[in-house]
Design a protein that fits this description.
The chain contains 16 helices and eleven strands.
Length: about 400
């Protein structure tokens, strides 16, 4: 997927065109082309107050190729385990995540309050879903409907009850007791975005970790309880100068992206021009990227369909695992994330087999920040104790038979 750069068109060539006319060979080439295209002159006409959400176009973000690639791979293959964006303020981390709204793919959304799905029955039997869904399934009625993936944001001031849910006050007013769904249940089959994830309270972090690991969680309030699905792609961002991230939650992010400021002066100037155009007339800015954005969304859908047929050869996987071991990485999530990201990379390129180039392209974001100096020091000290223990046991086992022989 390392393709030659496509020079952005000149101002004279920047008239709106049908993107279908371009022979893009991959999703990456399409994104790079659109990201570098020239803007039409912005006007303040019809700018007004924008009532509907109009996020900054994802394809209009200048530079930051690794960040954009990581986010796209997480949309294609949720099994990469989410994305963590690490960098200083003002580097478009939050902007990039929120701009995914127009690129989010379709999923089968559960019609059930508890998030029951047909695959739950296929995997665990009829008892794996609620009684209402069991009855619908027996009657041949659908349990899901097609819907676009949503972006669910976790506010920094969210309480634990906001996150996991609590007593439904409206139901209680009618003398009924029911658990109100929390943000984690709302994030089922969606993207859960946590800005400044390193500043979360420990109890909220623990709740998110448990839900992410199990794919569901249970809330109990006295005699009332409710279990909810919580299968989501976790996307977080943080500024390391504001505090470190707990190792437990760091380990839950599959791809780790170091987001730096743009170094090229021309790129920084172009970024300013695009932000100015967006602030002047957001609707016009969004329209300029709408057609290509729709094409990218279709490419993501196609890549998701190809993903189940995309595999990695055993020989290539074994050589990759040897590299992980040479780096001294203990967590098995390293190669799981690496291989799943490489599968998504190959699927986005229209191929059914992962190549060494796919692994190389995603390796930095999958393998960085996985070694622990503390654990390396701990294991080194423990190794000394293990060797001493083995020596003493060998010496003891050699002396014991001679002592028994004297007694006989």
């Amino acid at each position: 997927m390392d393709l030659p750069e496509v020079n952005p068109p000149s101002a004279a060539e920047s008239e709106p065109k049908e993107p279908v006319g371009h022979a893009f060979r991959s999703l990456k080439e399409l994104v790079e082309y659109v990201s570098g295209k020239a803007l039409e002159p912005s006007t303040a006409e019809d700018s007004g107050i924008v009532a509907e959400p109009l996020p900054f176009p994802f394809l209009a973000i200048v530079g930051q190729k690794e960040m954009k690639l990581a986010l796209l791979l997480s949309l294609i293959n949720p099994a990469v385990g989410g994305v963590l964006l690490i960098g200083p303020r003002g580097t478009a981390k939050t902007t990039a995540v929120r701009s995914l709204l127009d690129l989010l793919p379709q999923v089968e959304r559960s019609l059930c309050f508890y998030g029951c799905l047909p695959e739950d029955i296929e995997a665990g039997g009829i008892d794996a879903v609620c009684p209402d869904c069991a009855r619908k399934y027996a009657e041949g009625r659908p349990l899901t409907m097609p819907d676009r993936v949503r972006l669910v944001e976790l506010p920094l001031n969210a309480t634990l009850e906001d996150v996991i849910g609590g007593i439904d006050e409206q139901a209680a007013a009618h003398e009924r007791r029911r658990i109100r769904r929390g943000i984690l249940a709302q994030a089922d089959r969606n993207l859960l975005y946590i800005d400044e994830v390193n500043l979360l309270n420990d109890d909220i972090v623990d709740a998110i970790l448990d839900a992410a690991a199990q794919g569901s969680y249970t809330v109990r309030r006295g005699p009332v309880s409710g279990s909810y699905r919580s299968r989501f792609v976790l996307v977080g961002s943080m500024n390391p100068e504001e505090g470190r991230l707990r190792p437990q939650i760091m380990d839950r992010f599959g791809l780790r992206v170091i987001v730096r400021g743009l170094e090229d002066q021309a790129e920084r100037l172009e970024a300013y021009r695009r932000v100015h155009a967006y602030l002047t007339n957001p609707r016009q800015m969004v329209r300029q990227y709408a057609a290509e954005g729709a094409l990218v969304q279709q490419e993501i859908e196609s890549a998701r369909l190809r993903l189940s047929q995309t595999s990695i050869p055993d020989k290539l996987a074994k050589t990759a695992i040897s590299l992980v071991q040479k780096m001294g990485i203990d967590s098995l999530r390293a190669e799981i994330t690496w291989f799943e990201a490489a599968r998504a990379h190959a699927a986005a390129d229209g191929r059914a087999e992962v190549s060494a180039e796919d692994l190389k392209a995603v390796a930095p974001m999958a393998l960085r920040l996985r070694r622990s100096e503390f654990m390396q020091s701990y294991f080194a000290n423990q190794q000394n104790e293990e060797e001493e223990l083995r020596g003493l046991l060998n010496h003891w086992s050699q002396r014991k038979p001679r002592q028994n022989a004297k007694k006989t």
